[in-house]
Amino acid sequence: MQTRRETLRSLTIATCLAAAWPALAQPPAAPAAPAAGEGDPAVATVRKMTDALEAALKAGDVRARAEILSGPMKETFDLPAMLRLGVGTRWKDIPAAKQQELTAAFGPYLSATYATRLGAAAGSSFAIDPKSEARGAGRIVHVTVTDGSGDTSPVDYVLNADNRITDVFLQGTVSEAGTLRTGFSEPLQEGGADGLLAHLKKSTETMLAAPAPKAK
């Protein structure tokens, strides 16, 4: 059973993941007052992802939640960049064709991971700061996650110059990229790129096959 901290950490990573939502259309000549953060593309990216997370929280099982999250995560996350960070220095030694296979498998893996974590996050909500902050060539968007009991946790989304998420931090210290690197270390050591690819596919299948919780 997950602790409250683990649940909030799960939401991080699960949120973590948002790049510019295409619905940021140009306003008409006489627009209504814009929503907070609407003019900030980094905030819009994160808002798109948190909207998907909130929708996924209402789904009944892991597979349904993963289907809801899959599209928004592809749009909002820089999945190739996150995978490179997760693999680390070994990435440059992996042939280009195998890198493409790994990237294709990583998207479903990450969606299934977040969908699994959301299973313990019923009642959670997300409050986004209306303005992002500069970090190098990219931006940081601050989000406060409130769980069902009212406890809060700060989550920082790191976005690149294209306003796509490349990392997520909980409490300013727990990095999603670092979590991936830890999880990928053993399959890479034991089987190299092929070992990691098998790990991604098997883990995804296992997570998606989890039964829906029984009604109380």
UniProtKB/TrEMBL annotation:
<protein>
    <submittedName>
        <fullName>Toluene tolerance protein</fullName>
    </submittedName>
</protein>
<dbReference type="InterPro" id="IPR006311">
    <property type="entry name" value="TAT_signal"/>
</dbReference>
<keyword id="KW-0732">Signal</keyword>
<feature type="signal peptide">
    <location>
        <begin position="1"/>
        <end position="25"/>
    </location>
</feature>
<dbReference type="Pfam" id="PF05494">
    <property type="entry name" value="MlaC"/>
</dbReference>
<dbReference type="InterPro" id="IPR008869">
    <property type="entry name" value="MlaC/ttg2D"/>
</dbReference>
<dbReference type="InterPro" id="IPR042245">
    <property type="entry name" value="Tgt2/MlaC_sf"/>
</dbReference>
